[in-house]
Amino acid sequence: MKMKELLLFLSCVLCGSADALHTDIHVVGCSYIHGGVMFGLDREELWYADFEKQVDVYPQPPFIQLISFGDGAYETAVSNLYGCRQLLQLSRTGMKDYPLQRDAPSRVMIYTRDEVELTVKNTLICHVTGFYPAPVKVSWTKNGRITTGGSSINNPYPNKNGTFTQIARLKFIPQQGDVYSCTVEHLGLTKPLIKTYNVETSGMPETLKPSFGPAVFCGLGVIIGVLGAAGGTFFILKANKWI
C-alpha cells in the first residue's frame, strides 16, 4: 500500500452498516502543503475547516437545519492537522523510497446548478472525480480571462474505491455569448484538463431556443385540412350533379 494512501485511510472514520439508513464520515487528510478536515453525511458536506482563511465553514444551504460542531471545532481541526503531519513524517521515515501512486481524474464535468435564464444569477459547477492523491487544483476563466470572484472548492471527498472527488463552484450571471472554462491540474496529469461551458449553446433553456417543429406540423395540418375540405366539396358537388 502506498504511503499517502495508508495515511489517508488511517485518517478516515466511516460510521455505518449494510442496513443503516444514513452514513456519516469524518475525514482528516494532509500532505506537507495541503490539509483537510471535514464532517459529512450521506455524501454531503456538513462542516469543513478552511485553513487558508482560518475559519470553519458550514456549506449547507440556509433552508437546511444547521448541525453545529461547537465553537472549538476549528481549533480541534488544527490539532488534527498537526497530528496528521506528524504521522506523515513517521510514515515517510518508515516507508522511504516507496513509489507514489498517481491516478489522474477519471471524469471531469461542467454544468450549472440551476436552469439557465439570461441575466439571472446562477452557479457553474466543475465536478472532478476518480483521482489520487488529493487534492486537485481548479481555476476558472471567463472569455479567456482568469476569474476568481465568487469561486470556491470543497474538501476532497473519498470514494469507495480509494480515489477522491472534488467540486468547484463559480457564481456567475449568464450573458449571451459568454464562454467559461474550468481548468483541472493534478499530479497524475501530463497537461491540464479543460472543460468549456458556452452560454449561447450550452446554457440556453429549451424555451429560449427557436423551434420550427410545431410550426411545421401545424402548417402541414392546415394544408391537409384545406385539401380535405376541398376534396369533400368536390365530391359533394359531383354527387349532386349526378342526382
From TrEMBL:
Subcellular localization(s) per the UniProt record: Membrane
GO cellular component, one term: MHC class II protein complex
UniProt keyword terms in alphabetical order: Adaptive immunity, Disulfide bond, Glycoprotein, Immunity, Immunoglobulin domain, Membrane, MHC II, Signal, Transmembrane, Transmembrane helix
Gene3D superfamilies with a match to the protein in the record: Class II Histocompatibility Antigen, M Beta Chain, Chain B, domain 1, Immunoglobulins
Keyword match Ribonucleoprotein: no
Membrane-crossing segments per the record: 212-237
Domain of life of the source: Eukaryota
Gene Ontology terms describing biological process: adaptive immune response; antigen processing and presentation of peptide or polysaccharide antigen via MHC class II
Domain Ig-like: 105-200
Signal peptide boundaries: 1-20
Keyword Membrane: yes
InterPro entries: Ig-like_dom, Ig-like_dom_sf, Ig-like_fold, Ig/MHC_CS, Ig_C1-set, MHC/Immunoglobulin, MHC_I/II-like_Ag-recog, MHC_II_a/b_N
SUPFAM superfamilies from the UniProt entry: Immunoglobulin, MHC antigen-recognition domain
PROSITE patterns (alphabetical): IG_LIKE, IG_MHC
Membrane-topology descriptor: Single-pass type I membrane protein
Chief localization: membrane
Record family assignment: Belongs to the MHC class II family.
Entry protein name: Ig-like domain-containing protein
Species the sequence originates in: Oreochromis aureus (Israeli tilapia)
Designated gene of the protein: LOC116312634
